[in-house]
Prior knowledge:
Two copies of one chain form a homodimer. Chain A is an alpha+beta fold. Chain A has nine helices and 13 strands.
Amino acid sequence: xxxxxxxxxxxxxxxxxxxGVLARIFPRLPAAASTVLGPGDDAAVIATxxxxxxxxxxxxxxxxxxxxxxxxxxxLGWKAAATNLxxxxxxxxxxxxxxxxxxxxxxxxxxxLEEFADGLREGCETLAPGCGVVGGDLSVSDTLTIxxxxxxxxxxxxxxxxxxxxxxxxxxxxxxxGAAAEGLRLLFALGAPDAATAAQLKLTHPAQVAAxxxxxxxxxxxxxxxxxxxxxxxDLSDGLAIDARRLAAASGVALxxxxxxxxxxxxxxxxxLLATFPAGxxxxxxxxAIGMAVPGEGVLVDGxxxxxxxxxxxxxxxxASG
Amino acid sequence: xxxxxxxxxxxxxxxxxxxGVLARIFPRLPAAASTVLGPGDDAAVIATxxxxxxxxxxxxxxxxxxxxxxxxxxxLGWKAAATNLxxxxxxxxxxxxxxxxxxxxxxxxxxxLEEFADGLREGCETLAPGCGVVGGDLSVSDTLTIxxxxxxxxxxxxxxxxxxxxxxxxxxxxxxxGAAAEGLRLLFALGAPDAATAAQLKLTHPAQVAAxxxxxxxxxxxxxxxxxxxxxxxDLSDGLAIDARRLAAASGVALxxxxxxxxxxxxxxxxxLLATFPAGxxxxxxxxAIGMAVPGEGVLVDGxxxxxxxxxxxxxxxxASG
Lengths: 322, 322
């Protein structure tokens, strides 16, 4: 059963209060193996045996980043975990912990928060076992807002940057391309946001809708890529076309791709991993070759320069349509 | 000159785009001595030579947490840094880095973001030299929202928890009590929010208004307290009455205070440090004794039990008034 955000009945954040809500949420959160000190004090403490820690932060906003007509609270928890875990993995690190700040209207059901915590737990347990939530913050806002900061351990390895690709490297990807965008297209095609119709779509197009609402980035392949000698890597959040151009620009090479479709190039939010490897590398995990780093600039597909095709949070969202 | 959030002229987040805004903000952000890898990749990397890292996260929302009629963008940057630095200090740690996520309307001036970055820099440089911003995220939202996650180094010491106070310990505080709440009272007393009147109040009551809009928590006293043997410590965010009760409850003692006024008990947002020390400790830094830990529960002032007096984000904010 899904708790509504603005219900008629039941305990709300306003009626239960911050401390009461936290007491109900904490037991549902995933534990982190790295925990030295968990939630409840002014700050948490995690172990960083490497002597360095990988840090990434990302905010999800109701409207531009998700719709409550489509996503359950558990979906949101899962996605908030998955997108941040992917950024940690893209450095070649193993995710160790998350902190989660959430702001919601005062009339939000506590049950909504409990389901959100369940989604965080399911996401961590599925995608990055051992990673858990070590702290957070609850606030009130008219706009449901989720801010996650994620941490990772490099285990003695150097971080895999965007800038290390060299001419002759294999270009490879692990994870889906374009599925999340196809899911979003299908959801928008429903017309007016409607939870029942969205639920129906989850049954008829489960892979595409799940790719959008509950992405499964290949977290373990981040470490696998680093161990296999990846020269550069990033998380595909804005689409292959844009993110591959970023890697190419940072590395001072062009990426010549083949066998990728327009939908695979344009689709964002897959949170798959794009990496480059020295020629001759046996590709690890789920990586498959899609091209080669060559002299030049930008991204070429079957020899033609790719332009455009992406997502900017300040121009990609039409508030009026959503 | 203060840039308005919703201006008539000038570059906006929507017109410049995320990457363009980031390029203009990065040079203004404070550098962190702990930086291994700064902004621009999927994640940042900081050094954690202790083998552990202190982590705290906090969200500030337009409305419940601040008003643009009162706070300049630089004030907001300062306060976002200060409140998180105080949580790190309250563990006995030295702040090393921040990541900052910000969501704002698409018509927000880039100049507003630049001033916000200036405030972050001024706050870090003044309160915690060496601490800086290593990463962040920009999003679009109808509600201006700031989420900061801060990090600290324990330098080989154990974290100072809320739960370590023992009967006979000195209770001491470093920093102001009640000034931030007095500043808020004065700002509310202005009636309708009005930037010009707020600016006037900054001239006539600078200490109180600054305590609210640009708090100066005694960050270095967190480490000083830990080195002096503090048995328990926390950041006074919700007021001495409530926060002292939290420390008392976590430690299984009562805190018997004397010489504190009702305004000092009730006022929140000072971000001063409340700590307990073994009897006979020479109090470090700016700490002054305000009482003793005794058998029992709760907080006593001049022998009388204190009840109430605090701030809950879900009940303490009247959206209609703000």
